[in-house]
Amino acid sequence: MTILITGGAGFIGSNFIFYQRKAHPEDKLVCVDKLTYAGNLSTLKSVMDDPMFRFYRMDICDRESVYQIFETEKPDVVVNFAAESHVDRSIEDPCVFLQTNIIGTATLMDACRKYGVKRYHQVSTDEVYGDLPLDRPDLFFTEETPIHTSSPYSSSKAAADLLVMAYHRTYGFPATVSRCSNNYGPYHFPEKLIPLMIANCLNDKPLPVYGEGLNVRDWLYVEDHCKAIDLIIRKGRVGEVYNIGGHNEMRNIDIVKLICKELGKPESLITYVTDRKGHDLRYAIDPTKIHNELGWLPETKFTDGLHKTVQWYLDNRAWWEEIISGEYQTYYERMYGNR
Ligand code: NAD
Ligand code: DAU
Questions:
Q1: Which residues 6+ apart lie within 8 Å of 76 measured at CB?
Q2: Which residues are paired to 30 by β-bridges?
Q3: Sign of CA dihedral 8, 10, 16, 22
Q4: How far is 124 from 19, CA to CA, in rounded Å?
Q5: 100: pLDDT confidence band, cut at 50, 70 and 90?
Q6: Are the C-beta atoms of 27 and 1 separated by less than 8 Å?
């Protein structure tokens, strides 16, 4: 079959492409990506010449181009990773988040309906559930937890989820939605916590921890997320939402200390900075449904995954050094300069 993957030059989309090539070499992959600041063609260089892979630079909001690609490539399945994904940028400037994350999703679904795509999968996030209190470790997000967003980013993702479910109910649109917790692993853009801290550590720069560093995230190795999505598109039930997470809750400060330890850097690099506005306290996924229905379980333990990730950043300095030497510097100065 042909799988159209949007946002495949980004972090999770590229890892999904690599996983698909390994797990299902018989399937043809078509990647479309606008190549925003977060998209990087060099990430895809190992598959660029593969006859079962094709890349198009395209904005998922550009209806005419989207229809043209569907007409040419006739995808059976569409997996939508394309999004503006960084909470801090959404707080600075929400508009592009509404455009890509909502209008882009609607445009793709319209194309799927027009060209009779058999399955559309929306890659969503646990952030649509809002946050949980720090003093209630017994509480988890289930698929029934009400949507209750905090940031412009999570609100735009929630709006997209609602649209997907509305298309399913109204048109019988064959969609599934997954809501995953925080990912980490290779090709993670260094604006996000783990790669930012690794890059700063390696450059002996301050490690900017928001607030007191006590916020909790539920970390999952990116390949485990890719395996879950693969199961959902092949075996998941249409019209269903699946939560994905590995019961691996960590406080930010503990992650940063672990990274210092992995790299043999002093904790004195840690600098506490002004907190993120509206900062979600805790995310924690209950993955019972995907485990019971599809047999999914995370396979990578956090200590192993973090070790592999740190090693990847050590072995692939050119990839992230190229990123942080460009426009990223202006971003970094704007975000952290006076914090
Ligand atoms: P990313 O920012 O690394 O990559 C996003 C990709 O989308 C980039 O390649 C970018 O160029 C592309 N893109 C952006 N706007 C586009 C547009 N208008 N048209 C076409 N392409 C466009 O993001 P990521 O971390 O890989 O996240 C992928 C998806 O997974 C997102 O939908 C995000 O909401 C979701 N998600 C991420 C995480 C996480 O921890 N990173 C967790 C759960 C869910
Ligand atoms: O939960 C899934 C979500 O995880 C995805 O939907 C988002 O696309 C993804 O970016 C991520 O969102 P977070 O806001 O949780 O990730 P981020 O890496 O930006 O921040 C993780 C935590 O670390 C958060 O509590 C804020 C904190 N932080 C982050 C940065 C960048 C810091 O303390 N310092 C930093 O410099």
A1: 1, 2, 3, 117, 118, 119
A2: 4, 54
A3: positive
A4: 19
A5: very high
A6: yes
pLDDT tens-digit series, residues 314-331: 999 999 999 999 899 999
What pLDDT does 95 receive?
98
Q: What is the pLDDT of residue 326?
A: 87
Q: Which of 141, 193, 197 to mutate for ligand 2's pocket (most ligand atoms within 8 Å of CB)? A: 193
Residues belonging to the active site:
126-127, 153
CB under 8 Å to 9, separation ≥6 — which residues?
Answer: 31, 33, 35, 39, 40, 41, 43, 44, 55
Pick the closest to residue 179 from 138, 147, 223 (CA basis). Answer: 147
Ligand 2, atom 28: closest residue by C-alpha: 193
Q: Which two tokens stand for residue 324?
A: 């942080």
Rounded to an integer, what distance in angstroms lies between the CA atom of residue 27 and that of residue 1? 5
Find the 82 Cα to ligand 1 centroid distance in Å. Answer: 5
